[in-house]
Amino acid sequence: MQVDLSHAAGFSLxxxxxxxxxxxxxxxxxxxxxxxxGDLKPVLFDADGSDPNTEVYWTFPLLVGGQAxxxxxxxxxTFSCVVLPSLTIGREFVKTQGHYHPPMPxxxxxxxxxxxxxxxxxSLLLQRRLENQSDRIDxxxxxxxxxxxxxxxxxxxxxxxxxxxxxxxxxxGLYSRAFAPKYDPIIRMAGAAYYVIDDAAxxxxxxxxxxxxxxxxxxxxxxxxxxxxxxxxxxxxxxxIADPAKYAFLxxxxxARRHFASRSGS
Length: 266
Known about the structure:
This protein is mainly β. The chain is built from 6 helices and 18 strands.
């Protein structure tokens, strides 16, 4: 089935739910990069012995930005999509590998990011390290993303997308093009602080490798939390085109400091 995502995306975009292919429109163009089982093996709860070359999800980096290309370039930003099929690996629902972000140059503030829901029922697992220690977490949340949801990933949070549903799940993200994700802290711990399992009796299993791990908060939307977006009433792409300065916090440490200070009490 081909589904038109133009309303959710803010530009012409179609998802083929059978093949997990994107059909982009006349103004924007995306690439396609598969992530394979072998990439995820170090962070899986119980790999099922499948071929390590099996494609388990895909990222679609923006290649041509259309009318937003200049605004993205000036602010050092890029945009990409992620599609996860309906899949379990062993007993675990399919997920992205998960990573942290490094600090912005000249600061101690890790790069933030903004995710937006486009299709399906993805969940976003967010966790924050205590004093940059891989095995100690002081906040952990599982956020269900649904129609219209956009989520800010604050500095210092690792993030992992999970698809627990019987259909593909898709998000898009706006973030700095300047950094390389930090996978090692998640790999070192063989995954995040919790695994999401296809088991109605025990759907979430703690990762015992973590020395400190708070209870997992299960959230139905980002409103009223530090994960709330800058502009909840418009698609992320539409919002960025209308007011790129609103997203200065993604690459400017001082703007980030102001932005997240204003949300510290959320």
